[in-house]
Each structure stands twice: as structure tokens, then as C-alpha cells.
Amino acid sequence: MQLSDQELLAELRQEGKKEKAFQLLVGQYQERLYWHIRKIVIDHDDTDDVLQNTFVKVWKNLGNFREESALFTWLYRIATNESLTFVNSKKRRNLNFSDDTSYLMETFESDTYFEGDELQKKLQKAILTLPEKQRLVFNMKYFDDIKYNDMSEILNTSVGALKASFHHAVKKIEDYLTQMD
Description:
Elements: H1 5-12, H2 18-41, H3 44-61, H4 71-93, H5 100-109, H6 118-128, H7 132-143, H8 148-155, H9 159-180
Helix pairs in contact: 1-2, 2-3, 2-4, 3-4, 4-8, 6-9, 7-9
């Protein structure tokens, strides 16, 4: 049963329906958030952990959500922050990586769950070479088709800066793919 975000929020506010409504929320957003997180942390098992942490944080903070943004942007913001925190803490523990790219590339190369063809693999490697902000913006726009206004709320960045980041990301990916041929 799919509910609108407004219906979900109304159900979440009713004490007798809160747990059932939360299960519905998880059911409706779990897959989208999984793939959003997966593009940031790369590893499947790590993604599951971050997704679980995201939903725990959502559950604990439902009472603080004031609907100043859409439910899905709030969920994405939490998932994004949890993902970035996870990646940064993992990098600190693995000091043998000189930068983000080498850490992410190593994680991607060892991912036994990746099922893409050679072209998809090249695209993912190109995306991993991008700076963090450009990688986030590219993934959210290209794969998730998130509008710039929503992305602005999720990442707390101006629409103009997001458009510039996406443009630079596309250019860098094109350059990377051209060099690969």
C-alpha cells in the first residue's frame, strides 16, 4: 500500500499507528535510499549498515521533523549525511589511502555485487574520480533525477552552485571516458 508523504506523516503522528506507518515509510523509501547510499559508500554490506543507521536516525528524529521540507528531501539529507560520515570515518581507519578516489576505487574494484557491463564499469570509475560534491550532484541528478530545488535542500547548496557542479562533473566524466578509449 503506497501512501503519499502527507498521508505517511499524518499516520506517523498518531500514536497507535506510528510503528505501522514507519514500516510503510521504510517500505516506500528503502530501495531508493539504498541506491542513493550505495552510490556514496560503494560497498553493499556497508550500504546496508548505513541504510539501517539512516532509518534509526529517522525514527529517533520524527518528532523533530517540522515539514519545512518535503519528507523525501529530509530522508535523503539524513541518508547523505550518514553516508558521508561513514565514508570519512572508514577512510580515517584506513590510512593507507592517499585520497578519496583511491579509497572509493579500491572499494568499487572489490565489490562482488556489481553486475554492470564494461561500459557501466567505466562510467562508475569515471564518477569515482570526481570530487565529493560533484559526485553527489551527478549521481542525484543523473541516476535519481532529483530536481535542483530539492537537491538544494538536501545538500544545503544554492541551485546555481549545483548546476555548475553538475556541468563540471559531466565535463570531467566525458574527459575521463574519452581518455579511456
